[in-house]
Amino acid sequence: MKSTRIPLALAATLGLLASAPVALVAPAQAAPQARVALANAPFAVAEVQRFDSPWAMTFLPDGRLLVTEMAGNLRLFDPASGKLGTVAGVPKVAHGGQGGLADVVLHPGFAGNQLVYISYSEAGEGGTAGAAVARARLVLDQDGGGRLDGLQVIWRQQPKVSGQGHFGQRIAFGSDGKLWISSSERQKFDPAQDMKTNLGKMIRLDDDGSVPADNPFADQGSVAAQVWTLGHRNILGVAFDGEGRLWAHEMGPKGGDELNLIERGDNYGYPVVSNGDHYDGKPIPDHDTRPEFHAPAVSWNPVISPAGFVIYSGDRYPGWKGSGLIGGLSSKSLVRIAFDGTDAREAERFDMGRRIREVEQGPDGTIWLLEDGTRDGQGWLLRLDPKS
Description:
The structure is a single chain. The chain has one helix spanning 110-113; strands at 4-7, 21-24, 29-30, 36-37, 43-52, 54-59, 65-69, 73-77, 84-88, 101-106, 115-123, 129-140, 146-156, 168-173, 179-183, 201-205, 227-230, 234-240, 246-251, 257-262, 298-300, 306-311, 324-328, 333-340, 343-351, 356-361, 367-371, 378-386. The radius of gyration is 20 Å and the shape is globular. Strand 14 (168-173) and strand 15 form a beta hairpin. It is mainly β.
């Protein structure tokens, strides 16, 4: 799918520059609804360890796992021994609804600097909250735990608002060392189109939280300078493909979940357009009615409720290399995405029978999942063992 850039001329109520670039793209491909039963999947599922409402995980170089629990616990788990410990020094989180301790990733230079990045929901005044990203040095002990030293908050959503939904707060590093943060619109709709806030945006920063001079809106200053793209609803998965392209999926409203190719300075349209409608039944114009907005590469209706995302680079599952793997919450599935350059389509959907919150690739190419625990408080860490 090749895009053609055109000048953007949005109404003044959107608060954007008339010169901001967007992309015309082909209509989103329809997603198949056929499910693959686990009996026919190329893997078997092993239940490894239970966690309290887990949200995200990342592997350390030695094969151990850091796992976040939404109430504010950062756990250290060794799959080889089964030993489970706790990493102290996590800041107080605003836990409730979709808020709490969220993502965890390693700095690209972790082997030398031991820096870990976490995202979490932070309380504000008057019952408000907003996402924050902090970094700290991970110091491990001999007892299977550790602590975060020198924690420093390097980014915050602005402004903090009421409510407990749509924080986003997925984080990732690109091959150039830049830090990417998904900042969702907090169920407030219009901020996604308002450049005076960093809500409903994809954020790009240097690893210390400073703003790169080549960001598309850097000349606007303030929070606009942080923005790479705008017009997003609730981004809960970001991943780079083998060519360095950034892909992100987001939950749509009532219908209209999306997988998007993230391109510099583009506007993805929410809440002006969506392939779904508002939960109160009020219609939203579809993407094809407003070609000045960047349309999704894949759109789902019925929704899959996407959460967690990797683009697989291993060899343990035949035919999966280069595929995207998305966890499905309401769909209780693992969705495999096939890419062809900048085109994407749903290739397979595995019926997991449980809500999948997180997807991660282990050092040996094994895929690991976290079961969502927001309904009953517990969620399994799952290992997908390839069938011989």
